[in-house]
Design goal:
The complex is a heteropentamer, with 1 copy of chain A (about 300 residues), 2 copies of chain B (about 260 residues) and 2 copies of chain C (about 270 residues). In chain A, strand 6, helix 6 and strand 7 form a beta-alpha-beta unit. Chain A is globular, with a radius of gyration of 19 Å. In chain A, helix 1 crosses helix 11 and helix 11 packs across helix 12. The longest helix of chain A has 23 residues. Chain A is of the alpha/beta class and about 300 residues long. Chain B folds into 2 domains: about 170 residues, P-loop containing nucleotide triphosphate hydrolases (Rossmann fold, 3-Layer(aba) Sandwich); about 70 residues, no CATH class. Chain C contains 11 helices and 1 strand; from the N terminus they run H-E-H-H-H-H-H-H-H-H-H-H. Chain C has about 270 residues and is mainly α. Chain C has a single domain, classed as MetI-like (MetI-like fold, Orthogonal Bundle), CATH 1.10.3720. Helix content of chain C is about 75%, strand content about 0%. Chain C is flat, with a radius of gyration of 26 Å. In chain C, helix 8 packs antiparallel against helix 9. Classes of the chains: A alpha/beta (about 300), B alpha/beta (about 260), C mainly alpha (about 270). Chains in contact: A-C, A-D, B-C, B-D, B-E, C-D, C-E, D-E. At the C-D interface, helix 2, helix 4, helix 5, helix 6 and helix 8 of C face helix 2, helix 4, helix 5, helix 6 and helix 8 of D. The structure holds adenosine-5'-triphosphate (ATP) (2 copies) and magnesium ion (2 copies).
Chain lengths: ~300, ~260, ~270, ~270, ~260
């Protein structure tokens, strides 16, 4: 008898493994009757896992996630998306106005206005780490929604931002915004997103969680082979794009969607392996910023007994 | 069934409104209460009808109400108090519904009182379609529908224009002549009082006390405007009240 | 006529000085203003005088709407939104009217609940979104709850105001005829409060539409609110305006429906 | 007395059937309800019967508030929020009253603008956030604009309703005494519309507070709305409730202030 | 200054209200207009005062208004039409402000009319503090403040109770006796008409036409309630109007 699970997802390529596992029946093979639930932001998905509406999700490590972990609601069990030298990753951007005024590298953003969705978001983390590395100060501007940030970038009201490659490239192409650097240069092996579930699933439903990760990992392998390492051949790549397009860009023409997907392909962690050093660094940063309690440690957030540790 | 007030006094918080009123309401006759503005006429009527509890003294009903009487003490209000969302018919049935009469009986009561007040053709009209005089006729019909032992009328004609007032006075006289009812009739208008009252009680300024009781023996249907006896009564009442009325008029309402 | 001659030159008609202060309906002006604004936007965006970042081209918005319609995706978004609106508003308005009537009738309920409602009124519903997920889950129930919560407070306020405004004279009349308490409430208080409740309904339903967007922030894939949010996050102004136009039309339609309900239920007024 | 004897046993006091239907103030009940609810929450969270995910512990919320106060960060958040509220509401209410009066006085303005306002009313302001960024930037002006826009439409509706309700008899009186048009507007229409405008103000200002959170979504680092949003994104319920409590108090305070303004400006009413 | 109506007719959309009214308003005397409900009395007065434009015929003012007259045609309304947010004084100054009188002169006018209407001590009271009778006195004071050539009174006593009505009639008679003014006085009330009118114009039911013109020669200050001549006039007027009044009363307001 298949066990019912709900997998939370955003319409992003970083969630591709779930889509693949779903479409190619890997969940079913693992004895799971999976249902995808879509969200338009990571935060509600984390809350939905806490509330028990969703069993598994993928999201960046944010203050909200850590806070929920601290309340004993969720646990990170593996890695999902990772920056990797040599593979196109997230980009630092400058608005056209700033670019014309001489902002050509991330360092030039010193004293400028840097867009984040919210304090404590991954955007904030990336900006802060870059600023620390370059020895500059940024003025963080919270704008809540990616859409609002894009509007602000295009109209030159904020100067810098960082975002996943396909959005960065599309914006760069329009000329309103310019790519000025790679996140991977400042945060090598940055564990961008992680797989997480409820505390209850890690303690009382261990087999279920393991089965999920097994199926998920098959999806990861397919994806990496087809789009990141491109070892599976042209046909597999096309098949993969056909599979993902309706998930990621349901409202767009398939050709346009496929280009975007290809542009945005980043490494997913094999076997949901987790780069603990990066996670530790993120937790430390949140503590330093005073956004989470000092008592929170790595083990509060992560249960490393499910996936390989990198 | 008669009513009796025994040493009744009433106050609204600090404001003493009525003081030591003792009065018998005799059956089958119309008792008029006149007095200057704010002297407590309406309060007195509400005490009689059980809408207000007296602070002092007692309001008694003597004897049982006659058989078939659905609501012994029945009001007719100055502002008609018709439900604007019900038709004429609906406003009448309102006061019968709670008594769970057989449908045919209720229907018959309604038809009867509408006929007596000559409203049969306005049965399905809404209040807003009626002139003031018609509205008050509906209110009177509604009061008649519950065959009251005592009708309590609080300035029933004050909201009407002078001509309609004349017409309605004629109607009331006709109704009473056909089937005498007991009524307490509060009014400002001395012409009304001498036209309709078998007995007229004059209240003093606030706190209202009984200043004078006048009996008029002329039968109602023999009274008509300009009759010398009525004129005499009216003049005497006005001379009694004139100064009090002026003083009441000149009072500031709240400091 | 003798008079006329006598007064001679000083005779003149009495000057007219009344009239005015009674704006009358000017049919078509409203439509003309809309058309003018839209044409202006169209011309501005075409001539480049308005940048495409600032406003979408109205014809493109129209095309998007037509596309939504012909592709059938309009219904895909409209049906869930309407059902959320309906269920949420029915719950919120229903509870609100009941609470409002209780506040209007009972001293203790009034004393206990009025301050609570006053404190809840200025609470921004979007701030509570994370809590609503925990309390009501991410399915339809949290959307219903949000819309219900948003319509509840204004309905309560409008209803108890309406009950307070019921002519006490009518209530005393009911008592003087010996009507039971329940008869008075049913036959006098409720119909008398109806005009106020209905005009409160206008506001509550407008708020319900506004909250649709917030409600559909919570894990909704379909729905006009979700459509708008997605368009916003992609900065797709055509879709954004198409969605907003739909909500606006919905608002006008609902207000019209309330107007019709008033015409029927309040026929007894002029 | 003779009567009394004659009727014997059938003599009884007239039964009382009035009273009621006039809820009176019960001092303290409101406070008691608040205290009871808070104690219930405290007990529930302490005993574990309410999970810490569902509700924060009231004492922790209080501690957060106290901390905000003592650390001075309360002012850091309150001052920008209040200035945004003030500027935005002044603009929105000012324009709204002006527009409402014009609608109330001129047929063409009415015909042209009423449908427009009706169409704008149900537009959710959060949906327009991306546009506001472009139109007004991400600095204070977009926050002012959002609050102004949100307060504008309800103010317009309340104002023209109030102007419509000014006793036409008073206006005819003014005309019959040959008052100039401008005198009539200034001395009769505006004061006559004041009660309606003030009660509209109550609603507009509550909406302004609600919109504060939306406004501070846009690039605000300080402000109660920003504080709430950040607490929400960190799922820090203590801070979330502390922020909501502040807004709620602010709402009650503003409503009280409007009440005082009514007492002064409308002294002429009972 | 006299007024003259020549073949005046008026309709509100389809509803013909007045038909072919020709009438002279003589100076220094009170002309009463009586008629059943809705016959167009108020409309006629608004036509005279320039608040309404006649559909047919002409409303003329003959001769120039006397010097010092600030508002030749001045209304007194049934519902007083006082600004509730202004004190008694403020309500008077309202009608003077637009004339830019010297401050002292305005002040003197106000003091004078308040004295004439015996309102001096209510100067700073707000309308809500005043009884109906007092309010109408303020409205009369306001009308006197602009020294009108013609006063147009639209049922000025109808909203008052019977006793206050008596008191105010006395006041009006006293004011007129001291300084005769021209007035058109619309009323439903035949007692008022015979008490105050030098000439009484009876209108028919809607569309209002002139049914009868009655002159009463008795000087105003010699008239008192119950005088035989007045009673005779009143009875005759009532017999003229009774049936029309009843018919007007029974009319449905809008279908
Ligand atoms: N429910 C109430 N609460 C407080 N005061 C009241 C109440 N009802 C009446 N009063 C006051 O009591 C006094 C007498 O009122 P009442 O209505 O009995 O007088 P009235 O003689 O009927 O006056 P009117 O001639 O104006 O009808 C008035 O001063 C009035 O303001
Ligand atoms: N502004 C208006 N628009 C439309 N109809 C009107 C208007 N004013 C009055 N009427 C109608 O014209 C008719 C005459 O009105 P008017 O007020 O002149 O009568 P009236 O003799 O003064 O009546 P009442 O005795 O009730 O004061 C009535 O049927 C009334 O409904
Ligand atoms: Mg009374
Ligand atoms: Mg009239």
């Amino acid at each position: 008898q298949d066990r019912k699970i709900v997998v939370g997802a955003l319409r992003l390529t970083s969630h591709a493994a779930s889509f693949v596992a779903m479409e190619r029946g890997y969940f079913r093979e693992a004895g799971l009757d999976a249902e995808l639930r879509f969200f338009d932001a990571a935060q509600p998905m984390a809350v939905a896992i806490a509330s028990g509406d969703v069993d598994f999700g993928i999201t960046a490590i944010t203050g909200g996630l850590i806070s929920l972990a601290e309340k004993g609601a969720v646990k990170v069990i593996g890695g999902a998306l990772q920056e990797e030298k040599g593979i196109d990753g997230q980009k630092f951007l400058a608005s056209d106005a700033a670019f014309q005024a001489g902002v050509k590298t991330p360092k030039d953003l010193g004293g400028k206005r840097y867009a984040v969705t919210q304090p404590g978001s991954s955007f904030h983390y990336m900006g802060a780490k870059m600023a620390a590395a370059e020895g500059i100060e940024l003025e963080y501007v919270p704008l809540q929604k990616v859409g609002a940030i894009i509007g602000a970038m295009k109209s030159g009201q904020v100067d810098g931002w960082s975002i996943v490659p396909h959005i960065a490239k599309a914006l760069d192409g329009s000329g309103a915004v310019h790519i000025i650097g790679d996140v991977a240069d400042y945060l090598p092996d940055y564990q961008v997103t992680t797989v997480f579930t409820s505390l209850d699933n890690t303690v009382n439903e261990r087999p279920l969680t393991e089965d999920f990760l097994k199926a998920f990992s098959k999806g990861v392998a397919d994806y990496n082979a087809a789009l990141v390492d491109r070892t599976a051949g042209e046909e597999a790549q096309q098949k993969m794009l056909d599979l993902l397009a309706p998930y990621v860009y349901p409202d767009d023409a398939p050709e346009k969607a496929k280009t975007s997907i290809l542009n945005g392909a980043m490494r997913l962690n094999e076997n949901a392996g987790l780069t603990t050093a990066s996670v530790q660094d993120q937790i430390d940063w949140f503590k330093a910023e005073g956004m989470i309690k000092d008592t929170i440690g790595f083990d509060t957030v992560v249960d490393s007994s499910f996936a390989p540790v990198l | 069934m008669d009513l009796s007030l025994q040493g009744v006094g009433h106050a609204y918080s600090d404001l003493e409104v009525l003081r030591d009123i003792s009065l018998e309401i005799p059956g089958g006759r119309i008792l008029c209460i006149v007095g200057p503005s704010g002297c407590g006429k309406s309060t007195l009527l509400r005490l009689l009808g059980g809408l207000e509890k007296p602070d002092r003294g007692r309001v008694l009903q003597l004897g049982a109400p006659p058989a078939g009487c659905l609501n012994p003490l029945t009001f007719v209000f100055q502002d008609f108090a018709l439900l604007p969302w019900r038709t004429v018919e609906g406003n009448l049935s309102l006061v019968l519904e709670d008594h769970r009469l057989p449908k045919a009986e209720a229907e018959q009561i309604i038809a009867d009182v509408l006929a007596r007040t000559r409203l049969s053709e306005f049965r399905t009209a809404l209040p807003r379609q009626l002139s003031g005089g018609m509205k008050q006729r509906v209110a009177i019909a509604r009061a008649l529908a519950v065959t009251p032992a005592v009708m309590l009328l609080d300035e029933p004609l004050s909201a009407l224009d002078a001509q309609t007032r004349e017409l309605l006075m004629d109607d009331l006289v006709a109704l009473w002549t056909r089937a005498p009812f007991t009524a307490v009739y509060v009014t400002h208008n001395l012409a009304e009082a001498v036209r309709l009252g078998h007995r007229i009680v004059v209240l003093s300024r606030r706190p209202g006390r009984i200043a004078e009781v006048v009996d008029i023996d002329l039968p109602l249907d023999a009274r008509e405007t300009g009759s010398a006896e009525l004129e005499r009564h009216q003049k005497r009442l006005w001379s009694l009240m004139r100064d009090e009325a002026r003083a009441a008029d000149a009072e500031l309402v709240d400091g | 006529m003798a008079d006329l001659a006598r007064h001679g030159a000083a005779t003149r008609p009495v000057p007219f000085r009344g009239g005015g202060f009674a704006p009358s309906a000017r049919r078509g002006v409203g439509l003309a203003v809309f058309v003018a604004l839209i044409l202006l936007a169209e011309w501005g965006t075409r001539s480049g005088w308005i940048s495409p970042l600032t406003l979408p081209r109205p014809s493109d918005v129209l095309a998007t709407l037509v596309d939504l319609w012909t592709s059938g995706r309009l219904w895909e978004h409209l049906v869930p939104s309407l059902s959320r609106l309906a269920v949420g508003a029915v719950i919120g308005v229903g509870l609100g009217v009941a609470t409002g009537v209780m506040i209007g009738l009972f001293s203790y309920v009034r004393a206990g609940l009025v301050p609570l409602v006053a404190a809840l009124f200025p609470v921004p519903k979007i701030a509570l979104l994370p809590l609503f997920v925990i309390w009501f889950g991410i399915d339809e129930s949290s959307k219903y709850a949000l819309i219900a919560f948003g319509t509840f407070t204004p309905t309560v306020v409008a209803t108890y105001g309406a009950v307070d405004n019921v002519d006490r004279g009518l209530i005393r009349m009911g008592q003087s005829f010996g009507l039971s308490w329940w008869s008075i409430v049913r036959k006098i208080v409720l119909p008398g409060a109806m005009p106020g409740i209905l005009s409160g309904l206008r506001i509550s339903l407008a708020i319900a539409i506004i909250l649709l967007v917030a409600a559909e922030m919570l894990g909704a894939q379909h729905g006009i609110g979700a459509y708008i949010l997605q368009a916003g996050s992609l900065y797709d102004l055509e879709k954004l305006f198409a969605g907003v136009t739909i909500l606006s039309l919905l608002g006008v339609l609902i207000s019209f429906a309330v107007g019709q309900a008033e015409r029927v239920l309040l026929r007894w007024r002029r």
